[in-house]
């Protein structure tokens, strides 16, 4: 790893006790990136803004962060990050949906999992859609579910 980063092994260990320490720092950095802006879940416009914020932040992450989010071997690493982000969102927005705690937990889980899943798919597809197209489709899916994209008969 140190050869790939073009640093001396001793230099690495001056800053970190272990690789786990480096990964923990990366996790905290990514979590802070997604939680520094307070958001509201009080109405659909807030939800649409939140979706935009997520995808704009995600598309401007450093490449390393994108790889950690999108590469299959790092899914457990990213799931830990996503769990912390959604924990923060639940704590700062508890009661926003007027539901009991467990129903709200499902709403937050739905949003967190699906936002990440859609971003991963966009990256896997080579980012063929523009950011605006990605946000548009993601907003429809997250805000209106499958009924927003399935042809009605």
Name the structural class: mainly alpha
Rg, Cα atoms, Å: 18 Å
Please provide the ordered H/E string of secondary-structure elements: HHHHHHH
**Which consecutive residue ranges, at least 5 long each, have pLDDT under 50?**
none
**Termini distance?**
56 Å
Helix segment tally: 7
Number of strands: 0
Approximate strand percentage: under 5%
Helix content: 55-70%
Largest sheet: none
Mean pLDDT: 87
Layout: helices, strands, pairs:
Layout: H1 9-15, H2 19-35, H3 44-59, H4 63-70, H5 75-93, H6 101-124, H7 131-144
Helix pairs in contact: 2-5, 3-7, 5-6
Task: Give structural notes.
The chain has helices at about 10-15, 20-35, 45-60, 65-70, 75-95, 100-125, 130-145. By secondary structure, it is mainly alpha-helical. The longest helix is centred in the C-terminal third of the chain and has 24 residues, at about 100-125. The chain is globular.
């Amino acid at each position: 790893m140190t050869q790939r980063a073009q640093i001396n092994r001793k230099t690495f260990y001056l800053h970190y006790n272990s690789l786990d320490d480096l990964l923990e720092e990366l996790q905290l950095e990514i979590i802070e990136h997604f939680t520094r802006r307070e958001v509201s879940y009080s109405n659909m416009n807030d939800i649409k803004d939140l979706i935009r914020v997520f995808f704009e932040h995600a598309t401007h992450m450093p490449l390393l962060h994108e790889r950690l989010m999108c590469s299959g071997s790092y899914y457990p690493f990213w799931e830990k990050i996503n769990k912390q982000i959604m924990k923060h969102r639940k704590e700062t927005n508890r009661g926003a949906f007027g539901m009991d705690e467990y129903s709200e937990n499902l709403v937050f889980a739905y949003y967190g999992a699906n936002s990440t899943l859609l971003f991963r798919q966009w990256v896997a597809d080579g980012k063929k859609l523009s950011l605006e197209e990605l946000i548009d489709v993601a907003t429809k899916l997250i805000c209106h579910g499958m009924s927003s994209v399935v042809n009605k008969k």
